[in-house]
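Instructor's aside before we start: the two examples that follow are unrelated to each other. I chose them only because their records fit on one page, so don't look for a connection. First example below.
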Amino acid sequence: MQSYQLRALVAVADAGSITAAARSLGISQPAVTRALKQLEIDVRATLLYRNNAGVALTEFGVALVSHARLILKATDKAEQHIAQMVDAHGGTLSVASSATPFMLVLPSALELVRRQFTTLDVRLQEAVYPTILGLFRDGSIDFAIGPVPAEGLGADFTCDPLFEVELAVVLRRGHRLAHLNSLQDLSTLDWILTGPRNGPGAIHEQAFRAAGLEPPVCLTHCESVAATMHFVAHSDAASFVPRPIAKAFERSRLVSVVRISEPTPPMRISLVRPNQSILTPAGQALFSAIRTVSRSLTGAKPL
């Protein structure tokens, strides 16, 4: 198998036809056809079949295209790695982050990195566990920064703890219960779950159970902290959010932070990457910068 053959297969899978695939690759249709035919000879299996819409993958094609995407991304990263060693100014980098590092860490860390990698193209996306596992699987991200389960992510990943932040309860500004200071007094409200239930959203249940209370049922589920905050600001619902973010929205006079008497479990933020991954020089620089910035945070407890 050659990389040009795999690129042809991925292009056809994405475009749905050989003509469109050739156009996206900037080569002729016969060149794509030849590449695919040779690939089928190499793997000794039929990878495509024709249908009314153009072409589609056989079960063998579906299996191979998943591997092809990973191989091509690994090849691209290897080329970037060498290119950055030769001329350490550019390249690309993809990072997933939860809301707290987005606010407290990444702006300063990127500023440090861009002093050397002046033309580095960085793609940032808000994503948390378990969503990041799928992003690692398909090679979409180089590493992630955010909360992970207390037991870690297993033997295939390294989780490097950075800092912990307190959680706060927020209500809209002027809420009739904003003066109360007990989770029990607030338990009858509608609560918004932020993040997956088996990820950061688990904090909701942990906080109530630690206070000896039955967790309220959450009927509203937001994938991002920003969405949660805007929902809270325009409803009678409550939610747990990281305290630095809660205080920033409180200063904007959108929400009130409730001073509850019960302790809330901290949210631990970690750097996460697969053990088998190899970071480019730019990736190593950002990894190091994130650690440096995390050690000097205010409003968080470095680990």
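Example two begins here.
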Amino acid sequence: MRPAIQSISRVALILSPAVGDSLLMMTIAHNLQKNRIAATVFGQHAHVLRDWFPDIDIQAELGEAHLAEQLHGFDTVIQMHSNRPFTGLDRLHPRVILLDHICRARSSESMADRLALFCRDELGLPNAEKNNGIVPPPELQHRKYPFRVAIHPTASTVDKRWLASRFIRLAVELRDQGFSPEFVVAPQERADWKHVEKLGITLPDLPSLDHVATWLFESGWFIGNDSGIGHLASSLQIPTISLFMRRGIARTWRPGWGIGRVLIGGAYLPTGRLRERYWKYLLSVSKVTQAFEQLRTNLA
């Protein structure tokens, strides 16, 4: 049964440990705030980015201890996945909304669009939009460095990662074309990528997600795996090229805010298992550079 907007007055949004999921869930927080419904967001990544969401109450992630007590003052609790970060939430609170059905829906819409529709159709919020409410600090200049290409060569799991050697070849080709490719990796990943500096490729030191956001906002372009950093770039209206292993995954989880293109490796392979295993070998550097050239042409 869909809750009526009149019966929702104070909402707790519990965010996933994933960056992309967190940014997507901020769409709900933004639409609640637009409709003057009090929403408190609990999440690690959103808390780091709290200065980028000035109109939303963002708190640090919740722990298992005293969870029911911490949720007691909210009339509604929303979590994207039934098992992340908490399982059994419905045993701790009388009204819990889980969004697994939206993630699994057979739809051509991206998750950003689906969550906007959820706000409109299931929460009954008028004029719902897929904007997640992110507001860059005023001292920053959007795409200040138009030739800087942010490249994200990692992802949360190995199967989502295009070949490291091809990311490096891509960066070298872009450098030779006059661009400034820079690799963005997490602090704990830097040691694995320091060698690219010997090729003249910059590896900026970005110690936290808010530093990444600042750097991305002033970059000209983004190329990377299926990852939360791609969602961050898209939400900041940086043109993106995202590399995915399967079309169905890309249909749901592609960055859905700014202009971008999605490339699928091995889309013609007959089974999902084969696509997941071989996509990274079948997606060529030339296909990515061609997509980048087309994206630039479209925006010229």
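The radius of gyration is 20 Å.
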